[in-house]
């Protein structure tokens, strides 16, 4: 089935489409204390929650980039509902093709939960560093291994053991690029269970309301596979954090 349709359905109940709770995302927004002339780029912006919250809190300008037509439409809808006059917009395009008008021009460059766009965490940090001005913020949301991933888990998910680093390796990847780690938002089991559980719930709701959808068997099979891998191994194996870095001095 169409990938974007799959994620659109499984994430229909989410506001934040990663294992960070809305409360923790709010803490990050509060922490940042951005000036009103701040300029933000959020790669893989999902439903636009991070960008919209920053615009609500500080009146920032910005752009969100996402490849999913479902998520871009939803981000536009939310923006229109909450902040129609804001100087932010969402564009449907591949994040890897996003070229800022000028390098090192944004106050904040973020990518929460889509580091594959740049070939992994290190490539994502390189891309974000190129976008952000000195003194600015580089914010990366990334999984990390809580333990050596069991072979069965790797087989079930198709992941490889080098897909992620450990928590400290994710931090050190930023430090090697001259970034200063100023904060982390680490998800706990509640956050993870909510993130995963909302996908099961959304799929179940969808199945009840769309019994004739020819994609339904495949959708339910994929969700069941992910659910089993999470419950058997993932819950004890994969962590998630938002790494909050500053790039040099202003
Ligand atoms: C885990 S979600 C995170 C969304 C958002 N950052 C959030 O935390 O709510 C991953 C996002 O990456 C987007 N995505 C996947 N591949 C992409 C690409 N090549 N370019 C831009 N966005 C992409 C998906 O549509 C989805 O919105």
Keywords:
alpha/beta; 250 residues; binds S-adenosylmethionine; seven-stranded mixed β-sheet; globular; 7 strands; single chain
Summarize the entry for a quick read.
The chain is of the alpha/beta class and 250 residues long. 45% of the residues lie in helices and 22% in strands.
Please give the structural blueprint.
Layout: H1 3-10, H2 22-32, E1 39-43, H3 49-58, E2 61-66, H4 69-82, E3 88-92, E4 106-112, H5 121-131, E5 132-145, H6 151-157, H7 167-175, E6 179-186, H8 189-209, H9 216-237, E7 238-247
Parallel strand pairs: 1-2, 1-4, 2-3, 4-5
Antiparallel strand pairs: 5-7, 6-7
The structure holds S-adenosylmethionine.
User: What fraction strand?
Assistant: 15-25%
- Which regions are unreliable across 5 or more consecutive residues at pLDDT < 50? none
Q: Major β-sheet, in short?
A: 7 strands, mixed
What is the β-strand count?
Answer: 7
> Quick one: overall form?
globular
Helix tally? 9
Radius of gyration: 18 Å
Supply the helix-strand structural class: alpha/beta
Question: How would you describe what is shown here?
Answer:
Helix 2 (22-32) packs across helix 3 (49-58) and helix 6 (151-157) packs antiparallel against helix 9 (216-237). Strands 3-2-1-4-5-7-6 form a seven-stranded mixed sheet, sandwiched between helices. The chain is 45% helix and 22% strand. It is built from nine helices and seven strands, in the order ααβαβαββαβααβααβ. It is an alpha/beta fold and 250 residues long. The N and C termini lie far apart (47 Å). It binds S-adenosylmethionine. S-adenosylmethionine binds at residues 16-18, 44-46, 49, 65-68, 71, 94-96, 112-114, 117.
